[in-house]
Amino acid sequence: MTTRKVALITGANKGIGFETARQLGQAGVHVLLAARDADKAAKAAATLAAEGLPVEALVLDVTDSASIAAAAAAVTTRFGHLDILVNNAGVMLDDGSRKVSEQSLDIWRNTFDTNLFGVIAVTQAFLPLLAKSPAGRIVNLSSVLGSNTLHSTPGSPIYDYKVPAYNVSKTALNGWTVQLAYELRDSSIKVNAAHPGHVQTDMGGASAPMAIPDGAKTSVQLALLPADGPNGGYFHMGATLPW
Asked: Would you say the pTM of this structure is higher than 0.85?
């Protein structure tokens, strides 16, 4: 057992998730660095542990119900509660050579399996543990690309960036965030959606304007919200984004 806050971050073996684990660890949170590949999770956790941070590996595939159940059972046995859940795992599978209407149903289904249904499944599994925290926090890694307002506004920064399966999965994730926040509105749990920014990750590309440490800041802010912090919002670096 630990007296530190306990956080679980999905898809945390690299990129924004890995940096989120580092920054939460630096803030004194005990971090469960989750990834579907046991070796990658262990290697990433060992890297942060070598920096003196309280991080350990956890195997969790957000598209596998048995893996989710095993992870929830392990956290229950080890800690008995969870303070922070960062639903960070995500995929972008769209075929850039195809039009919006030409993306295959397999791409749509596989994208939603991770970006929406995986988030819902993981949240359902860990919500009982979050309810045992005096200040549970859920952070859903969304994107500005989930904003219908900006997608339908000519001249907006994302108006011409139509990656439909990914974009709509994040729109749906925003909707899930709002619905869950309503359920939890009278509890000590807060749930919010985070846009990390256009970050230099495998997904964002090397030419993206934001470095990975900056890309993790919004997730960390929302994970560490005080009692009077927002619930059911959509944020980037403290600024509210349009749905």
From this structure: yes
